[in-house]
Every structure is written in structure tokens, then in C-alpha cells.
């Protein structure tokens, strides 16, 4: 999951100022794409946006750079398109979560006759499961077994 989609308290890495500026630029560019249907009009506004970013690229004073970044974030928030484009398989997209990944444990409940159709696969699978259990027990120890049966 992209760190920009995570809530602030769940971020695990720090972003440099340059990464924050790049992120702002990309989001602003996507917002321009949402606003303009005509490709030429979008490209015109994209060039203007790039010029605005390039105008401040050589600022050495970090306080001023941070202030510009905060103003840019505020401006983007104020000018967000009311119906942003969503990629279909991204969160909020029309296909997000549509194809469900079937968990591996479902194969444990196959009937033996079904498993007999793929003997090599299930033999290798049982071997891998056993190796996984041994690795887990080596790392964490045997599971706790109580005296209450």
C-alpha cells in the first residue's frame, strides 16, 4: 500500500523534502488531468504547473522551501477535482477487490479423489508445509499445549 494512502500515524518511513515535492507535483499533475478532458488543454496546464515548480527548484533556504511546500499542499487541497480519476484496480476504483485471492488452506479441504488428480503437486505441497512447520518451530518453538484435553 502506498504510504500516501496510509494515515499519518501508520507511516513507517520518513520522506525527504525532495520526495514530498515530487509527490505534490505528481498529485497536482493528476488533478490537472482530472480537470481537463482535452489532451492539448491538459498538456498546456501541465507545462504551466511544471514551470511553477521549476521556478522554486533552486531555493536553498529550507524554511522557505518548507513554507512553499505547505502552501502547495494547501492549494492542491483547495483545488481538488470533485470527481477524481481512479485507476480501476486501485482503492476506490470500480474493480478494486473484485477478484478475490483464494487462500491456500482451501486446498486442505479437497476430497482425496480430487487430490489424486494432481499427485505430484500435492506431494510437493505436503513437503513444503512440513518444511514450513519445522522452520516455524525452530524459530518460535513448539506450540503451547495445555494439560486440559
Task: Describe the secondary-structure layout.
Elements: H1 17-35, H2 39-55, H3 62-78, H4 112-115, H5 119-140
Keywords, please?
transport, mitochondrion, phosphoprotein, mainly alpha, 149 residues, elongated
Q: What is shown here, in short?
A:
With 149 residues, the chain is mainly α. The chain is built from 5 helices and no strands.
What is the count of DSSP helices, taking H or I runs of 4+ residues? Answer: 5
Q: Say how many strands there are.
A: 0
Helix content: 40-55%
Termini separation comes to 43 Å
Unreliable residue runs: none
Helix and strand element order: HHHHH
Mean of pLDDT: 90
Main beta sheet: strand number and arrangement?
none
Shape: elongated
Q: Radius of gyration, rounded?
A: 26 Å
Work out the strand percent.
under 5%
* Global structural class: mainly alpha
Describe the overall structure.
The protein is mostly helical and 149 residues long. It contains five helices and no strands. Helix 1 runs antiparallel to helix 2 (39-55) and helix 1 packs parallel to helix 3. It starts with 16 loop residues before the first helix and ends in a 9-residue tail after the last helix.
Amino acid at each position: 500500500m502506498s504510504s500516501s494512502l496510509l494515515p499519518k500515524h501508520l507511516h513507517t518511513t520518513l520522506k525527504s523534502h525532495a520526495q514530498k515535492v515530487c509527490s505534490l507535483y505528481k498529485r497536482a499533475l493528476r488533478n490537472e488531468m482530472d480537470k481537463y478532458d482535452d489532451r492539448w488543454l491538459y498538456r498546456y496546464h501541465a507545462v504551466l504547473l511544471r514551470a511553477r515548480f521549476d521556478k522554486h527548484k533552486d531555493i536553498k533556504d529550507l524554511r522557505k522551501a518548507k513554507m512553499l511546500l505547505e502552501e502547495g499542499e494547501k492549494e492542491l487541497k483547495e483545488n481538488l477535482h470533485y470527481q477524481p480519476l481512479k485507476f480501476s484496480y486501485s482503492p476506490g476504483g470500480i474493480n478494486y477487490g473484485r477478484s478475490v485471492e483464494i487462500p491456500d488452506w482451501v486446498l486442505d479441504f479437497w476430497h482425496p479423489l480430487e487430490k489424486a488428480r494432481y499427485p505430484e503437486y500435492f506431494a510437493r505441497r505436503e513437503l513444503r508445509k512440513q518444511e514450513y512447520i519445522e522452520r516455524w518451530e525452530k524459530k518460535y518453538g513448539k506450540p503451547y499445549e495445555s494439560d486440559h484435553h
